[in-house]
Amino acid sequence: MASSSLDPFRLAFSEPSWDDLRIFLAVVAHGSMNSAAKALGQSQPTVARRIKVLEETLGLSLFQRGPNNLDLTEAGQAIFEAANTMGDAAAVVSRTAAAYRPDPDAPVRITATASVTLFLSLYAAELHETAAPVEIAYIPTRRRLDLASGEADIGLRMRNLPEGSDDLVARKIGQIAFAMYARTENPTAVIAPPEDPTLSRQAAYVAEFAQGRTVAARIGDMPIRYQAAKAGLGAAFLPCWLGDSDPDLVQITKPEGDLIEDVFLVMHRRSRNRPNVARVANALAALFKKNQKALVGA
Asked: What is the mean pLDDT of residues 212-240?
């Protein structure tokens, strides 16, 4: 009796090779062995052979092969979900290693919220001139990127100092004030953020302001919210440096209390000793100091 090419007992105790799992992840990501081969810089027969070895090692068929398609089997989907976690962990390892042996010519990556990144973009030429010849990369996101694993070199964080790592160093470089702005002094509509008012101080403030007014839209992205307010949709919560600089907008509320937030420049201890990172950090601190009045709505 002929034995199956995928004998479930033959290699029951073998551990799959990470190289084979990496190729498997590439095949799933690119949809075919040929496309995965091109992405990996390998030949299609090599990729097909490594997938076969992986299937034999696991004792499972990972793909349902059709004439023009390659679909995961139920087992293949389960293996993919497990291996994908390993792939994410491997990426973290690679970033962490790179953070300890950085390319001196690599761009210095700054992560900040969209509103802070928009402010930086207005002075990008000035920052470039001050930090030259260092190249700067801007990463606008509300997610706190992991500085320890090398997702970014400098983080501009609002309100509170970061917690949870003794390896992070922070310094306050300024403040940013916020207020409600609209095309008219008595707006009847409000542009609200999408967050639950119980989970965000900004959302709670806007919800209180919206009492007796119509919520015209919910927009989380600050630059888009600004454009909607400028177009006359309603009052929006904006940073004062932006609202005050636009002659089409009127400040409806005064920035005070929780509407004035501290800004901290955060780095990992190893990063602050890199000359290029230190150069960009000093340029950022100088920029905030120079514009401190506009930033707090003075």
From this structure: 94
Strands 136-140, 108-112: pairing kind: parallel
Q: At which of 100, 121, 149 does a domain end?
A: 100
284 in Cβ contact with 116 (< 8 Å): no
pTM for the full model? 0.65
Token pair 């919220």: residue:
113
Measuring CA to CA, how many Å separate 295 from each of 226, 255, 257? 16, 11, 15
Note down the domain range covering 292: 102-298
Q: 176 and 74 in one domain?
A: no
Q: What are the φ and ψ backbone dihedral angles of 204, each rounded to 5 degrees?
A: -65, -40
Read off the pLDDT of residues 52-95 as tens digits, 9 standing for 90 and up: 998 888 888 998 877 667 888 988 888 888 888 776 766 666 66
Q: Does pLDDT of 180 surpass 50?
A: yes
Sign of CA dihedral 56, 57, 59, 63: negative
